[in-house]
Automatic annotation (TrEMBL):
It comes from Guptibacillus hwajinpoensis. It comes from the Bacteria. SUPFAM superfamilies: Aquaporin-like. It is found in: Membrane. This is Glycerol uptake facilitator protein. It is a multi-pass membrane protein. The lineage of its organism: Bacteria, Bacillati, Bacillota, Bacilli, Bacillales. InterPro entries: Aquaporin-like, MIP, MIP/Aquaporin, MIP_CS.
Amino acid sequence: MSPFIGEILGTMILIIFGGGVVANVNLQDSKAQGGGWIVVALGWGLGVTMAVYAAGQVSGAHINPAVTLGLAAIGDFPWSDVPSYITAQMIGAFLGGCIVYFHFLPHFRKEDDKALKLAVFSTDPAIPHTFSNFLSEFIGTAMLLIGLLAIGSNEFTEGLNPFIVGFLIVAIGLSLGGTTGYAINPARDLGPRLAHFFLPIPGKGDSNWQYAWIPVVGPAAGGMYGAVFYQAVTEANYSTLFWIWTVAVAVLLVGLYQIGDKLQETVKANSEAKN
């Protein structure tokens, strides 16, 4: 199996388990309906664990463009391989979203809530606020990369690493996930969101494209900066590159803070106009 196929398989497994647990606890007449946030966090964590077991020996099981970009940013992964990895992750996430839909097809037909149907595929904020939502995804993904690099610097019993990585995902979900649904993975959000857009889901609403850039750009930026930050701190090497990244992130966040409210007002006005 090639690394390209490995990333497709791993990301597809991630979405089958992750999107599946969201469908399981939310969709009408599921036996797990009402299972709650802890069940969702455990489902996503174990989904990552299974995905890493499936693809880890083949591709390194990035299963996340933010991980691929983060490792490339610190020189641990070749930039020339980044496009193929991200393409594979997007394909896997799209396929995973489609499989979840067909698995829960009768429940999608019985569910009337358009937002719950979309939630199976992609994230949305508890309180829409451009700056805060972006910052939540940035911080969550930075912690993901810091955690992954910290795990990688330790030795565990052979075969245990995927479980530790899964627990990291659970920790992020339980501690930081309530604000935006913790996409922390551009493919995890955009791939299934595209599946929602194209699939003939009965009674679905729109795919919330006005929000879709946040769980893509936020994790990508957070992943790269988290990796750069961890490397700088652990090696005590605050290079020019580190300060360039830091200044760039600061400018980005300040800019979003300044225009965030205006963007939110525009989105709200557009939404009211449609209604």
